[in-house]
Amino acid sequence: MSTTTERVLTRSAPAGHTPARQKPNWSLVTRVALLLIAAVLTLGPVMWTLSTSLRSPSESFRLPPSFIPWDPDFTSYAQVFQQLDIVILVLNSALVTGLIAVGQMVTAAMAGYAFANLKFRGRGALFSIVLATMMVPVQVTIVPVFMLIRGMGLSDTLLALILPAIPTAFGTFLMRQYFLGLPADLAEAAAIDGATPWRTFRSVYAPLAVPGMAIVGILAFNFHWNEFFRPLIMTISEQNFTLPLGLVSLQGNLGTGSISVVLAGVVLSMIPALVVFICGQRALQAGLTAGSSK
Amino acid sequence: MSTTTRHREGQKHAAKPAASGTAPARSRRHSQRWLAWIFLAPTILGMGLFTLVPIVASVVLAFFRWDIISAPSFVGFENFATVVQDPTVRVSFLNTIVFVVVAVSLQLALALALAVMVQAKMPSWLRTFFRSAFFFPLILSAASVSIFMRYLFNEQFGVVNWFLSLAGIPAVPWLTTPGGSAAVVIMVYVWQNFGFSFLLFIGGLASIPTETYEAASLDGATAWRKHVYVTLPLLSPTTLLASVMAIISALQVFDQPYVLTRGGPGDSTRTAVMVIFESAFQRLEFGQASAIGVILTLIIMAITAAQFRLSKRFVFYQ
């Protein structure tokens, strides 16, 4: 063992330092070049969208395409407000997404806490059922959910989008993991102090749960802000449309009429997602890949 | 709660720490159970109403004919028979399978190659930039992405054909031919989703101990051999997870083909979920839609089970 380490040290020391100083590291250059091509292909379409939305409607077809808005023109942004009830769409999307996010954060925190820290009969079995529901695709249950919503008299309302989306298996799973990660002696100390289970939750665990709830909220926001399938089915009248649905119908109405107007709408719809991306990228990545480690 | 009672309870705990049958301990367990059910009520009731009941209802509905207007009538396996013989449904399932095979292979290959390249030595700001760039499309809405991609792939004024024309390639009729449409749907889907597999692979690569590579270098392994004999086997649990997740979500593809092509031209980009949507909400054949949904769910379950079976043979767990 000791000889191996010595050999590693003696060999890797010159190998790791000298070539970098003497000649360009060709493997690094190739790698970065390939990665740059991939990054350009990934970000290019978005740059084109932004930059074309900032061309005037008559210029928007002109080739060569533009990828950087050197000379921004905001006509299309003014027009999108005239051609589309975009204020209503934004309000609908914000209301639906916001209420789903808050609802998921609260219910997932409560259920996750129960599964992590409270003892009751049937806990394991119930948690397995919750996990199993994650595997059922929304498209399979959509017909009965649609009927149910109709039966409740909620068809073509925003509540039809909000209510079925609040119970969250994934959020409950995330919050359970989160509470299990908190030190257990907190609960023991509280119990010794004679705190009731409710007080233990309210004064000890609930304040600590905020970062975990934030991840649930960010994931819910990102998913439902972009959702298309359910709004397409659940809403009929345009005043109940959410943004993605409104934009798709705008594109359908205009055909290929003025692409910069449609793209201006697309850019506007991306802003909240962009804010989340800038502020909560870490949380979003952590949440999305949670559960991948066993 | 007054200080005296708290004090007394504290004393009791101190006196008999192991006894769980004492009155306060029993009432604690009792109130824990109560709190648990109160906390679980919204989630359990909501899931029961909006997931479990609909699953059962969906299976039951598959055996009925129902158009919402008249009363449902039991038809046995008729819906399944109709659906299996329907040429549109058949071609849609076939399209979905081809889509899953091609899109998932591309997505995983791309994600793995990029993850390996990003994880190798480079300045950390550059690594952060690449990670954010590849992650970025994930936060966008598939509908919005499909809207702008439809313009990019336009035959006359699309940017893609403009770049091809620079290379002397004549305009490709992307969205008006069956092959072109299928290619666009696949490219747009992979463009948006490879970042997720990429993130999973980054996590998997980070968990491979560096000593393994050092040992391989000692034995004189080249970079390529290290990939094949160290990275790939040690990464296989991640690869399995990434492929299961990618396949399950690709089987449910809807937004991209709906916005890009509406399933056309002809039925060339119609997918399984699109026929569920059309049967139910355009033709009001709710029973048939449920039958297609049940078939799709069975396929998803079978593939998931098969992958975990295979994993026992091929996946290398440390």
Description:
In chain A, 74% of the residues lie in helices and 0% in strands. Chain A is mainly α and 294 residues long. In chain A, helix 2 crosses helix 14 (259-289), helix 11 runs antiparallel to helix 14 and helix 13 (243-254) runs antiparallel to helix 14. Chain A is globular and about 75 Å long. With 318 residues, chain B is an all-alpha fold. Chain B has two domains: 3-61; 75-314, MetI-like fold (Orthogonal Bundle). Chain B contains 13 helices and two strands, in the order ααββααααααααααα. Chain B has a two-stranded antiparallel ribbon. In chain B, strand 1 and strand 2 (73-74) form a beta hairpin. In chain B, helix 3 crosses helix 13 (286-314) and helix 8 packs across helix 10. The longest helix of chain B is centred in the N-terminal third of the chain and has 39 residues, at 23-61. Classes of the chains: A mainly alpha (294), B mainly alpha (318).
Keywords:
heterodimer, A: about 290 residues, mainly alpha, MetI-like fold, 2 domains, about 0% strand, globular, B: about 325 residues, two-stranded antiparallel sheet, 13 helices, 2 strands, disordered N terminus
